[in-house]
Specification:
Elements (H helix, E strand, L loop, with lengths): L2 E10 L2 E10 L5 E5 L14 H11 L4 E4 L18 H14 L5 E7 L1 H9 L6 E7 L6 H16 L3 H8 L5 H15 L17 H11 L3 E7 L3 H12 L1 H7 L4 E6 L9 H22 L1
Parallel strand pairs: 3-4, 3-5, 5-6, 6-7, 7-8
Antiparallel strand pairs: 1-2, 2-4
Length: 290
């Protein structure tokens, strides 16, 4: 299907932002709004993934919008991070529906801390009825320590190369043991001793994500990488919290695992696979709503 790519400027709290809408010739009523992950990225996404995603989906009839929020890419203003991009998301939703008036429902697309932003801010908007989340970022010292012990140290000591380095004096076991001991001490902390149960804007961001996941009743597609410690940290948090588990392991949440993909889906194979999974999921949503 033919589509147009429409660049435009819009504002968030007086700061100019840049957006691009990929508008199909015969657009569907459900569109995808892509949130850029933080750091030195912009609306193209890591390895131009968001461009590839937008062009693939718009060619099948799904309107897509990419944008830079404040302080990222060509977005003016100070970069405040994913925890504070609620106003940017609202401005982007308004701009998207202006430039693609056929859009009546929006699916948020985001990976890493952009997935975190979607869970924190997305449920505030009734037009957001779905989310595609890649390896959501939920970092804390406790969960990170558990993941490092389970998926790094325990795996490492089973590798021949590890012991060969020790025998050839190319590895400092004292330092490694010290780091492992520190990680083990952190794993003994219980979730009741941390702040994950707080609510409100002053709560740690994983708690805000959990609150959003509990509030959100729309459909969610989880795209999880097998080689990502961020993905494993998310799984650790969900498995250790009954509240997280009930919010994620519910009807309407589908998970697709990519065992050979890294955190950023940086290979062409991984990029194509995640976009294909999203396309199938979106098509299923359209079928279910008919």
């Amino acid at each position: 299907m033919n589509y147009r790519e429409i660049p435009f400027a819009f504002e968030c709290r007086g700061k100019p932002l840049i957006g691009i809408v990929h508008l199909p010739e015969h657009p569907r009523s459900r569109g995808v709004l892509a949130i850029v992950a933080g750091g030195p990225q912009y609306r193209a996404g890591h390895g131009r993934q968001l461009i590839q995603m937008a062009r693939t989906l718009s060619a099948q009839g799904t309107p897509v919008m990419r944008f830079d929020y404040r302080g990222l890419g060509d977005g003016a203003g100070e970069f405040e991070g994913f925890q504070h991009m609620g106003p940017d998301l609202k401005a982007a939703i308004d701009a998207f529906t202006r430039h693609a008036p056929s859009v009546k429902e929006i699916v948020l697309w985001g990976g890493c801390d952009a997935a975190s932003a979607a869970l924190i801010h997305g449920p505030e908007h009734p037009i957001v009825t779905g989310m595609i989340l890649g390896n959501p970022f939920v970092h804390s010292e406790e969960t990170h320590a558990k993941v490092v012990v389970r998926h790094y140290y325990l795996k490492r000591i089973q590798e021949k190369s590890f012991w060969m380095k020790i025998l050839k004096f190319r590895f400092n076991p004292v330092r490694a043991l010290s780091e492992a001991a520190s990680a083990l001490r952190l794993t003994r902390k219980t979730s009741s001793n941390n702040q994950h149960h707080q609510v409100g804007e002053q709560a740690p961001f994983p708690a805000r994500m959990r609150n959003g996941a509990q509030k959100f009743q729309g459909r969610i597609l989880l795209l999880m990488s097998g080689l990502s410690l961020v993905s494993k940290e998310f799984d650790e948090l969900v498995s250790s919290s009954s509240e997280w588990s009930s919010a994620i392991n519910r009807e309407g949440v589908i998970r697709v695992d990519f065992p050979e993909a890294d955190q950023a889906f940086s290979t062409a194979t991984a990029r194509d696979a995640q976009i294909s999974a999203a396309k199938r999921w979106l098509n299923k949503l359209d079928q279910d709503s008919q």
